[in-house]
UniProtKB/TrEMBL annotation:
<feature type="transmembrane region" description="Helical">
    <location>
        <begin position="237"/>
        <end position="258"/>
    </location>
</feature>
<dbReference type="Pfam" id="PF04515">
    <property type="entry name" value="Choline_transpo"/>
</dbReference>
<feature type="transmembrane region" description="Helical">
    <location>
        <begin position="278"/>
        <end position="299"/>
    </location>
</feature>
<keyword id="KW-0812">Transmembrane</keyword>
<feature type="transmembrane region" description="Helical">
    <location>
        <begin position="23"/>
        <end position="45"/>
    </location>
</feature>
<comment type="function">
    <text>Choline transporter.</text>
</comment>
<feature type="transmembrane region" description="Helical">
    <location>
        <begin position="209"/>
        <end position="230"/>
    </location>
</feature>
<dbReference type="GO" id="GO:0005886">
    <property type="term" value="C:plasma membrane"/>
</dbReference>
<keyword id="KW-0472">Membrane</keyword>
<feature type="transmembrane region" description="Helical">
    <location>
        <begin position="320"/>
        <end position="346"/>
    </location>
</feature>
<keyword id="KW-1133">Transmembrane helix</keyword>
<comment type="similarity">
    <text>Belongs to the CTL (choline transporter-like) family.</text>
</comment>
<dbReference type="InterPro" id="IPR007603">
    <property type="entry name" value="Choline_transptr-like"/>
</dbReference>
<dbReference type="GO" id="GO:0022857">
    <property type="term" value="F:transmembrane transporter activity"/>
</dbReference>
<protein>
    <recommendedName>
        <fullName>Choline transporter-like protein</fullName>
    </recommendedName>
</protein>
Amino acid sequence: DSGDSVYELREWRPAVYRKCTDILWLLLFCLFWAGLMFVSGYAVVAGAAERLVLGYDSFGNICGRKNTPVEGANLSGLDMTNKKYVFFLNSCSLEIQSPKISSLSLCVSSCPQQQLNSLEDLQSFARNNGSFLCVYSLNVSSYTVNPKAAQLCPTLPVPPSKSFPLFNRCVPQNPECYSKYASVLISMVNEMDVFHRILSGILAGRDTVIGLSVLALAFSLILVLAFRFIQTLFIHTLIALVVFGLLFVSGVLWWLHYDYRNDPSTELETEKENVKFLLGYAIFSTIITVVLLSLIFVLRKRLPFSVQLFRIVGKIIGRIPFLLFQPLWTFLILIVFWVFWVAVLLSLGTAG
């Protein structure tokens, strides 16, 4: 009868008929990766990250590798394979000039670990250690007889210095000299643009980043195990932790902003920028907290459905136990991507 309502059951279709439903987002994702590969390729071709990592002298030679001659630069193109450390001839009185360090720098095979008080000490150090602390054009035998040795050799006395891992520079060990050396490096950071400051901040906080990554891995493993064994209790505990975490993070950010803003020692430009960043983070965190807490309050009656969903997830993990390793390889992939991202950022920072 045409007047009767006709109810049709939804036709069941096997998975073979499934198709991609997010073509637009797939295209955007492909465009993102294409752009990422383009930026990475440009960074590798145009950048010189090894100059930052390995260090370089005042004549265009990169320390720790064999160099090619630079047109118009004397003493360039030298083989520095065995000379891995950067040594400043005037390490205790470094100055910044437009915006480079004024002191000559050389590639040396080892840093002087004892104070050298005379040209004879420099000559003896070069002969005993094979590390020449005077300009390359000056022969070792001429250290004490060449009238220009005072200009071509480091300022006396040469303080003891030491190189640190991943920082192939001879850093003075004398406290007074070290403070001047460090102040120049800090002032160089202040002269950098925002891009370089972000990079230096990442490298300075690498231990914190790695520690938080390990902590995230541990929490991920706990989360997956909780899916399997304690579904009902876990959902309520998770919501409580989310609420507490949101309130705690927002409170800490506002407290840090208030503390930094009222700190009379906040004079460096980088510290003033930290105050602005903290304010932005605090506002953003507060907005996210309000939105998520509102969603939790509105959807509080749907918690039983979440418990059922977690039970299903627990059964799936019981059938496919290898899912327990999912956080581990996700963690490894993120570490690889983070290393790749920092390498590209280093190359971009040295491009041009």
